[in-house]
Specification:
By secondary structure, the protein is α/β, with parallel strands linked by helices. The chain folds into two domains: 255 residues, Rossmann fold, CATH 3.40.50.2000; 209 residues, 3-Layer(aba) Sandwich (Rossmann fold). Helix content is 47%, strand content 18%. The chain has 16 helices and 16 strands. Helix 2 packs across helix 3 and helix 12 crosses helix 13. The chain is globular and about 65 Å long. The protein starts with a strand and ends with a helix. Bound molecules: GDP-alpha-D-glucose. The site of GDP-alpha-D-glucose has 25 residues, from helix 1, helix 12 and helix 13. Its EC number is 2.4.1.15.
Length: 475
């Protein structure tokens, strides 16, 4: 059996064996724990000179981590990855900034990381690279002579060609992506955007089986929606229900209904619009005053990127304004908590709430939406209000799907969710649990890796056949 090498920008903190708030880390660690293997990437430390990876083993996972210099961090991570790629891939060109120096740093760090990983590789390893920080990583490995199968999964949306083309080196990036053997996207729409870029720009062709021929390479391009382990989450949510924090939330609600949201503090998550739609509910339906509260947990991320500082200020302002407008001595409409909570506790909090309010402006998948549903008590489940622009909307047919730019529609959906009869809530919950079980996190991983093995074997057969044909022709 070949060894699995997972590569991502950031490796989850080893001591905790538990990732920070962030969907990629949660998905990758859970997926890797089952199969075992190596997880290679940035340790989160800033260092003065690139050095050899630090190797630590915990259970069946070997963590191989490297530091980044301050310049690497500024140009590759804070710069091109999070000031150019992240906003543009989330359709926020207005927030995107491009700097040639940052892009050069992005290329340089990809090349350095590839060199560092190469030293650890064995010929039979299978390499799975994750996310937008590492679009050119396979090309860097190929330039070093690495022949192993290399797959790539993009956790965030892939924009339509018109939007992608606003990034000056767009073609260089897509060309580099074609060095992978398999590219996976969260949704069919993202996959189609990539294929459209290739075909409309006349860079290559695609066939019905998902194979793309571009820049002299054959690769598979598919949609592999990331899953969760719904039954494990349901169990954790139930077990943690008696925790002190959960009890005090329940007691503090004094029979009020609870709308619950959890997101990294990020402008793509639609937090401002969400607060404003809740405000609209309170305006349109005064009967809910004193009878419903919104709890928003939003641990800060990328706090040194300017756009994240701005969204934080705006949100604090909005929460204060709305609370000032509607609060009563014994009722605070919005509880806005800028901190991280233990994962299982979050699931138990979801279980206490009548509405899961998940309304990103764009999101690759959105695991919180799935976790909310999985955490519910099947006998008395809450209702999910979900943005149509989350990849999860394709997969959760029982949600009330809303356009997060339409505040009135969101307010109506909240009201409907808060008043929904039990039988309808149960039916909607059941409609979502079954597909989540069938497409859990192991299925996501195994489908992707099976395709990667298959494509890599097929291309090595093709390469050998081509070589043989060359030899025969010249003899
Ligand atoms: C990216 C893509 C895609 C949140 N707060 C806390 C906490 N969380 C956990 C949630 C969830 C994860 O973080 C967030 O995942 P999401 O999927 O919602 O969003 P991103 O972080 O933006 O993830 C996304 C994902 O990758 C996977 O492919 O779905 O579209 O953007 O699991 O529960 N966890 C803890 N404390 C918190 O306060 N422990």
């Amino acid at each position: 059996m070949s060894r699995l090498i997972v590569v991502s920008n950031r490796v989850a903190p080893i001591q905790e064996a538990r990732p920070a708030a962030g969907g990629l880390a949660i998905g990758v660690l859970d997926a890797l724990k089952e199969t075992g293997g190596v997880w290679f990437g940035w340790s989160g430390e800033t260092i003065s000179e690139p050095s050899v990876p630090v190797i630590e083993k915990q259970g069946n996972v070997t963590y191989a981590t490297v530091g980044l210099t301050k310049r690497d961090y500024d140009e590759y991570y804070r710069g091109f990855s999070n000031t150019t790629l992240w906003p543009t891939f989330h359709y926020r060109n207005d927030l995107s900034r491009y700097d040639r120096g940052d892009y050069a740093g992005y290329q340089r760090v990809n090349a350095t990381l590839a060199k560092q990983l190469k030293e650890l590789l064995r010929p039979s390893d299978i390499i799975w690279v994750h996310d937008y920080h590492l679009l050119p990583f396979a090309r860097c490995l190929r330039e070093l002579g690495v022949k192993n199968p290399i797959g790539f999964f993009l956790h965030i949306p892939f924009p339509v060609p018109e939007v992608l083309r606003t990034i000056p080196p767009h073609e260089e990036l897509v060309k580099a992506m074609c060095s992978y053997d398999v590219i996976g996207f969260q949704t069919e729409a993202d996959r189609q955007s990539f294929v459209d870029y290739i075909e409309r720009g006349q860079h290559g062709t695609s066939s019905e089986d998902g194979m793309v021929h571009a820049y002299n390479r054959f690769l598979k391009v598919g949609a592999y929606p990331i899953g969760i382990y719904p039954d494990a989450i349901a169990k954790a949510a139930e077990q943690f229900t008696d925790r002190k924090a959960v009890r005090s939330l329940r007691d503090g609600m004094r029979g009020r209904k609870l709308i619950m949201s959890v997101d990294r503090l990020d402008y793509s998550k639609g937090l401002v619009e969400r607060f404003q739609a809740f405000e609209r509910l309170l305006l349109n339906a005064p009967g809910w005053h004193g009878r419903v509260s919104l709890v928003q947990i939003a641990p800060p991320t990328r706090a040194d990127v300017q756009t994240y500082q701005r969204i934080r200020q705006t949100l604090e302002g909005e929460a204060g304004r709305i609370n000032g407008r509607f609060a009563q001595l014994d009722w605070t409409p919005i509880q806005y908590l800028n901190r991280k909570y233990e994962r299982n506790l979050l699931m138990a909090l979801f279980r206490q709430s009548q509405v899961g309010y998940v309304t990103p402006l764009r999101d690759g998948m959105n695991l919180v939406a799935k976790e909310y549903v999985a955490s519910q008590d099947p006998a008395d489940p809450g209702v999910l209000v979900l943005s149509q622009f989350a990849g999860a909307a394709e997969q959760l047919p029982g949600a009330l799907v809303v356009n997060p730019f339409d505040l009135s529609q969101m307010a109506e959906a909240l009201e409907r969710a808060l008043s929904m009869p039990l039988a309808e809530r149960q039916a909607r919950h059941a409609d979502m649990m079954e597909p989540m079980r069938e497409n859990n996190l192991s299925v996501w991983r195994d489908t992707f890796l099976d395709d990667l093995r298959h494509v890599a074997t097929a291309s090595s057969v093709t390469a050998k056949a081509v070589k043989l044909a060359d030899v025969t022709a010249s003899s």
